[in-house]
Amino acid sequence: MNYPIWDVSFGAGLLIAIVAITHVFVSHFAVGGGLFLVLTEKRAYRQNDQPLLGWLMRHTKFFVLVTVVFGAVSGVGIWFTIGLIHPSGTSSLIHSYVWGWAIEWVFFFVEITAALLYLYGWKKLNRQTHLWLGWIYFMAAFLSMVIINGIITFMLTSGKWPQTFGFWQGFFNPTYFPSLFLRFAFSLALAGIYALVTGSLQKDQELKGRIVKWSARWIVPAFVLLPVFALWYIGNLPAGVWESAQGKMPTASRYANLILVFSAVTFVLSLLTLFKPKKIPLIFALLIFGSAFVTMWSFEFIREAIRKPYLINNYLYVNSIFKEPVPGSAGMSLAEINLQGVLKTAKWVKNREVTEDNRLEAGREIFRVECRSCHTIDGYRSMRRIIQKRNWPYSTLVARLGALDKMFNGVMPPFAGTEAEKEALAHFVVSLAPGHVVGTATSSGEAVFDQYCSTCHQKEPDDPMFVKFRMLEQVRIYYLISKLDSLNPEIPPFEGTDQERQALSVWILDEFK
Amino acid sequence: MPIDSIIPAVDPMPLPAPFWLFKLLLIFTFILHIIAMNFMLGGGIVAFFTRLFSKSENHKRLFEDTSRKIPSLLAATITLGVAPLLFVQVLYGQFFYTSSILMAWPWFLVIVLLTLGYYGFYTISLKGRPTSGWVIWIMLVSLILIMTIGFFYSNNFTLMQAPERWAAKYQADPSGWNLNWEEHTLIPRFLHFLVGAIAVGSFLIVLSGLFRWKKEQPYAKFLITYGGKWFMYTTMVQFVVGVWFLISLPQSKMMLYLGQNMLATVCLLVGIMGALGAIFVMSGAVRNEDPRRGAITAMGLTTLVLVAMAIMRDILRSSYLAPYFKAENLVVKTQWGVLFLFLLLLIIGLVVWLVMIKKYFFTPGARMPE
């Protein structure tokens, strides 16, 4: 709205995900791994285990090459990427939390220096000084997490911040502590998982056995605690938000299933290492590593998905429209745009109003301004594929655009703009897949439901649609389906055939009466 | 799209501290970043050419000693670069984000190139005593990657102050493959930074000599005089590039430094006199039996020049943006509590950092027993 939109054909959101998730998989290792280094070093001294110390020196080099190089650069990379894709959101985070970032920078500075001195100090420093550096490193890395966690959780559960704009009110928000415990526990698990990888490469089987057992002692307890912290985290989400991951929103629900499967796989595989610790091959360690990666990937995807429609909860929508007018929002709040029109408000558009001649082009610009932060034409969350799959005609689309915030548990921001702009957008979207075919040629009522109703309704007995319909006779339901738009203007008219209407009415009663 | 209607609105959140504090932090951290960058890139370039045309054991040794330091210097460059990048977004976010988006792919590629260059430097550094010839080519590729990043930076930071070009660029290519080729100052500006990096980077060699003076004087003297000569010759080249940069500026901007703006003019004079003085002092030092005093004086003068240049750069940016925006007019609502916490933690962080450095480099008791 305020900034030009970077046209990434395969999907800007996907680019953020790739940069951010690979970063967090390393940055969490940077925290837990720091504690792992010092405690393993102490252990090796205590047990006078020279081979373990030798491995730990090599592991430190691996640690620095992964965290100081890739971790630090990809961390800066997140800033670069979100600044390109969500400049308004990035600007909000910078302006509201600049002193938080500055504090984090102090820790980052200490952390990087300590990591390098710890690495180079292995052959130079006495044990006491070397361990001291390790502790400094770990504390700085942990404190970095303490700060960043506040700002990430603020984006999901902003607490009282949207009313007060107070730094600490946003920082210590409802999910702050559960998220901190969750992330720290996962970072401890990752310390063990990364150690398994370098440990499995050791030729000395006795040493390998000791490393694998020691690593498992980091992974297994952490994975026992993770579900507890996850439940605590879920419990602190606003009512209804978690429902997105329980079936109401496809992305969140898919990853909620994946996280269950892959965290269980990671846990079980890590336990299995204890049976023959001296024999663990690299491929097995990499399997655990990959499984942990999918677990983290899923967690971050769920968090991002359930945060929608917001970029900053209750303040800024994902398409950079302010939820409410705030001083300085420059007319870019929902209500103001509805009044003025999106084309008159957006900075980077050519068409300032919709006419007969420019309808398609104006629709394309509205799509770019309002939808491109999540959707592409043919890439990630392709609009063309959605329209082809749903087979929505123009009239349905206009109705659906009017109730975007009702779809998939409110994952999308409401359409912002005038009626003419909404129609222009519908024209453009429909033009992506011309040749609407009436009906789906199916006689399955459930398939008809999936096609026409499932974007807003759930196959649950307590869904309002079924609560209403199951009290009625089948003939009455059959009749009402043809009058949906008169029951509620936000419901699009039923566009299917008579046969489909019949099948749907029968299925509703069969399923829910 | 008229210029005024496309410049993004200022963020609704007020500045969380007075303008001058952000400006001070921006310039100060930029200077720290640029010194680290100069040592890394300039030191790397000097080391590369030294190895390429190496005539003696000293030359080879210089390459080995210097290349081992580059990864840590790159770490410092990145870490110290985060802060000015943060503060520039606070003060000039609407300009910075927009120009970044217009050249989004090159800007994004900075991260990719940086990662590759970083691993390249580490490959050389961790090889121990590099004997094979391929090491030098990895060095060259990594240096080219870093220079490319510098070139992208020059593009972005000139494009952010030229909103009159934005609309045409976006309409021509919204997919983010634009660069700022139309900018007359682009090449001289980039070269000004590059040549300056080599000049200041030469001090990395000089500094290694200063630290080694007591241990092995002949090699230390070689480092100081060799680095000193690199400094002198590149600073002389810098005079040519600097003049090119100055005359490539639009008349109104050039005149800022020629009397129209007192601070800018004084800074330019300090820059010229400081650089001339540094060359003069260094030319004497490299002929001396003990070049240390002259070398240290030249470094002091160059630091002064760097400060003057950073201020000049800031004046130029403010002048370019003046028709559209004045950061000093931004609404301020200071977050006193967090600001004090930051300052407190900054002091603690600095103390911890200094203690780490002291223990590592200067405390014999912290060393491993022989």
What does this structure look like?
The complex is a heterodimer of chains A (513) and B (370). Chain A is mainly alpha-helical and 513 residues long. Chain A folds into three domains: 12-317; 338-431, Cytochrome Bc1 Complex, Chain D, domain 2, CATH 1.10.760; 445-512. Chain A has helices at residues 12-46, 50-85, 87-121, 127-156, 161-164, 167-171, 176-199, 205-235, 250-272, 282-307, 334-340, 342-345, 359-370, 383-390, 394-401, 419-431, 445-452, 464-469, 474-481, 484-487, 498-512; strands at residues 310-312, 316-317. Chain A has a two-stranded antiparallel ribbon. In chain A, helix 4 packs across helix 7 and helix 9 runs antiparallel to helix 10. The longest helix of chain A is centred in the N-terminal third of the chain and has 36 residues, at 50-85. The two termini of chain A are 47 Å apart. Chain B is mainly alpha-helical and 370 residues long. Chain B has one domain. Chain B contains twelve helices and no strands. In chain B, helix 5 crosses helix 7 (186-212) and helix 7 (186-212) packs antiparallel against helix 11 (292-321). The longest helix of chain B has 46 residues, at 57-102. The termini of chain B are far apart. The mean pLDDT of chain B is 95. Classes of the chains: A mainly alpha (513), B mainly alpha (370). The interface between A and B is large, with 75 and 75 residues.
